[in-house]
Design brief:
The chain is α/β, with parallel strands linked by helices. The chain has three domains: 83 residues, Arc Repressor Mutant, subunit A; 105 residues, D-Maltodextrin-Binding Protein, domain 2; 94 residues, 3-Layer(aba) Sandwich (D-Maltodextrin-Binding Protein, domain 2), CATH 3.40.190. The protein contains 13 helices and twelve strands. The strands form three sheets. A five-stranded mixed sheet has the order 4-3-5-12-6, with helices on both faces.
């Protein structure tokens, strides 16, 4: 029995026979509006009918979901937990309806793809165009963000698949991770920066500079800061935090900040003449970019097709 079958087997019979979508919709409105009367109006039902549905939900779960106070209906801790799971259920239903609508219009599907800023542009372009060449009626929706943000959207089922970096197995619990490629990063500064004139630099010197780095809490920020702790020096002052490597490039080129850029961007900036690559000893190793999807969700064939296209494109481009 697979993971999904185990999950279905754990659903009590009372939920299979009594739980309805209107229970979930009313629950969401009460949670957001803090008023049973307003929630009933939003669901186009009477207040007594709404009261009965909430009572049915509480009976099914065996816990109180809302408490009355001066502000109205306040969600309990149990309701907070239930809301997170209900959001996934409602998103699944919405996605199912959207997919059926696409099929009814003669279209074949949709891929909601999350991408991190450091993803190879050539890989994304090639994979997207190959998918659309084979399946011209497919719709590809792209959302850019940090890995942790994209993983949250993946868990909520707002994305089908993401490109991201996984730092530890704990971050990938209940997720399927397929390594695509590893790209090196370069320490960079402006061509006019004093460090650019040195044949070599030390980590101690770099730690004394002000930096532009990815946003706090992202895998790349953690790995960048680990470069310093691994060399036994203090972490530097981060003057600018950005999720865009292309913006980071121009911020570094225009002033005295030091930063890290993917090798492909750093090389192009060096060719353009506004960036110098620094080469300290013992460069840090960065986690590979992987394709990440949910284990507990049966992916449509289109997602598997796109994964195979990505892996072949990475191989053809010499990224692997």
């Amino acid at each position: 029995m697979d993971q999904r079958s185990h999950a279905e087997a754990r659903v009590p019979a009372v939920f299979k026979s009594r739980l309805r979508l209107r229970h979930l919709e009313l629950f969401r409105h009460v949670y957001e509006l803090h008023s049973l009367r307003k929630a009933a109006d939003a669901c186009s039902m009477t207040q007594p009918a709404a009261t009965k549905l909430i009572q049915e939900l509480e009976a099914m779960f065996g816990v109180a979901l809302f408490e009355r106070d001066r502000r109205g209906m306040r969600a309990t801790h149990h309701a907070e937990l239930i809301k997170r799971h209900f959001q996934v259920v409602m998103a699944d239903v919405g996605n199912m309806c959207a997919t059926l609508d696409l099929l009814a219009r003669g279209e074949t599907g949709i891929v909601r793809l999350g991408i991190i800023p450091s993803l190879s542009s050539s890989l994304l372009a090639r994979a997207a165009n190959e998918l659309l060449a084979e399946h011209p009626n497919v719709h590809l929706q792209l959302a850019e963000g940090a890995t942790n943000e994209l993983m949250s959207e993946l868990v909520r089922n707002n994305l089908d698949l993401i490109f991201g970096r996984v730092l530890s197995s704990g971050h990938a619990r209940n997720l399927r991770v397929t390594k695509v490629y590893t790209e090196s990063f370069e320490v960079v500064c402006a061509r006019e920066h004093p460090l650019a004139r040195q044949a070599s630099v030390t980590w101690k010197e770099l730690a004394m500079e002000r930096w532009v780095l990815p946003a706090q809490g992202t895998p790349l920020r953690e790995m960048a800061e680990h470069m310093f702790t691994a060399q036994g020096v203090l972490r530097p002052v981060v003057s600018v935090a950005s999720s865009s490597f292309h913006q980071m490039r121009y911020v570094v080129a225009a002033g005295r900040l030091v930063g890290v850029l993917p090798r492909s961007i750093a090389r192009q900036a060096e060719i353009d003449g506004d960036i110098a690559r620094l080469r300290p000893r013992h460069r840090a190793k960065f986690a590979p970019i992987s394709l990440i999807s949910r284990k507990d969700f049966e992916q449509p064939p289109l997602i598997g097709k796109f994964e195979r296209i990505v892996l072949q494109a990475a191989s053809d481009l010499g990224l692997q």
